[in-house]
């Protein structure tokens, strides 16, 4: 399947790897309020959002799940599929109607195993996204709880 334009989140991958990954994608839609995945569930797929938004949430005993982050256009939803034991660390819910590219995790992991260079590129791509989100989370936590905030001028 050929997609045009290529999702911007893939720009850190070589062009051949972008196409190879997108060749495994299928287009899906979720209505507002749909749960894409549940914390603790089997991480067997991941998505790149085309339109709409997905709130990532964390279970809080005795309370409603706490929204941690909202992701939208061009962003990767899910990284737990890449790392054993392939279990979701968060839940995800569509907060607006979502159209996305969906990828089967097993298929992508097999491609990564069969071609170590492709696998390294995919791991670096996902790792870069995880690192960016951890940094953003740290900044938000500092703004909320540190005496002088993060010091960020953004």
UniProtKB/TrEMBL annotation:
SUPFAM superfamilies according to UniProt:
cAMP-binding domain-like
Q: Which InterPro entries match?
A: cNMP-bd_dom, cNMP-bd_dom_sf, Env_Response_Regulators, RmlC-like_jellyroll
Give the Cyclic nucleotide-binding domain ranges.
9-100
Coiled coil (UniProt feature): none
One Pfam entry for this protein is cNMP_binding
Protein's UniProt name: Cyclic nucleotide-binding domain-containing protein
């Amino acid at each position: 399947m050929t997609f045009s334009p290529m999702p911007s989140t893939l720009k850190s991958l070589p062009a051949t790897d972008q196409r190879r990954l997108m060749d495994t994608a299928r287009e899906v839609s979720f209505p507002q309020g749909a749960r894409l995945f549940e914390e603790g569930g089997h991480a067997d797929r991941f998505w790149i959002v085309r339109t709409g938004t997905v709130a990532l949430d964390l279970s809080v005993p005795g309370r409603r799940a706490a929204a941690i982050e909202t992701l939208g256009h061009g962003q990767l939803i899910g990284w737990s599929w890449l790392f054993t034991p392939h279990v979701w660390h968060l839940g995800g819910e569509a907060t607006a109607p979502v159209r996305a590219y969906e990828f089967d995790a097993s298929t992508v992991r097999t491609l990564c195993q069969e071609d170590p260079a492709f696998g390294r590129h995919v791991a670096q791509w996902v790792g870069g996204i995880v690192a960016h989100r951890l940094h953003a989370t740290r900044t938000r936590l500092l703004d909320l709880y540190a005496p002088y905030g993060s010091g960020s001028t953004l």
